[in-house]
């Protein structure tokens, strides 16, 4: 995560495909406000399931992510209670400063 490396931020990196997040982690990271941002809309599974035509609840989304971690948008940057899904330099700056 080169962008944050240049911000003097210490990162604890995990390969989510090999070390999938737990349900408790997903429940802590995802809320009603960031649910849409947490979903990986580029995932073939997202398209296969027709999720673009559905409105998922947090529980439904987490259930699906527990079945297929590729439905979780990456990278996931967590600092305290702040979570950023996907590559977003502006959001990273906010998290790094908090």
Q: How would you explain this protein's 3D organization?
A:
By secondary structure, this protein is mainly alpha-helical. The protein has a single domain (2-97), classed as Glutaredoxin (3-Layer(aba) Sandwich), CATH 3.40.30. Helices cover 40% and strands 8% of the residues. The protein is built from 6 helices and 2 strands; from the N terminus they run αααααββα. The longest helix is centred in the middle third of the chain and has 10 residues, at 58-67. The two termini are 18 Å apart.
Please give a quick description of this structure.
With 98 residues, the chain is mostly helical. The protein is 40% helix and 8% strand.
Question: How many angstroms does the end-to-end distance come to?
Answer: 18 Å
Number of strands: 2
Structural class from helices and strands?
Answer: mainly alpha
Q: What's the arrangement of strands in the largest beta sheet?
A: 1-2
Total number of distinct structural domains: 1
The poorly predicted ranges are none
CATH superfamily: Glutaredoxin
The CATH class: Alpha Beta
Order of helices and strands: HHHHHEEH
Q: Note the beta-strand portion.
A: 5-15%
Gyration radius from CA atoms, angstroms: 14 Å
Residues in helix, %: 25-40%
Write down the overall mean pLDDT. 91
CATH architecture: 3-Layer(aba) Sandwich
- Total helical elements: 6
Summarize the biggest pleated sheet.
2 strands, antiparallel
Shape: globular
The name CATH uses for the topology is Glutaredoxin
């Amino acid at each position: 995560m080169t962008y944050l490396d240049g911000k003097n931020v210490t990162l604890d990196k995990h390969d989510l495909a090999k070390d999938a997040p737990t349900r408790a982690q997903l429940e802590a990271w995802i809320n009603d406000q960031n649910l849409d941002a947490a979903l990986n809309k580029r995932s073939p599974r997202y398209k296969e399931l027709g999720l673009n035509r559905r409105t998922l609840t947090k529980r439904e989304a987490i259930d699906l992510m527990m079945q297929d971690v590729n439905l979780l948008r990456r990278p996931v940057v967590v600092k305290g209670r702040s979570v950023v899904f996907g590559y977003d330099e502006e959001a990273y700056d906010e998290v790094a400063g908090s």
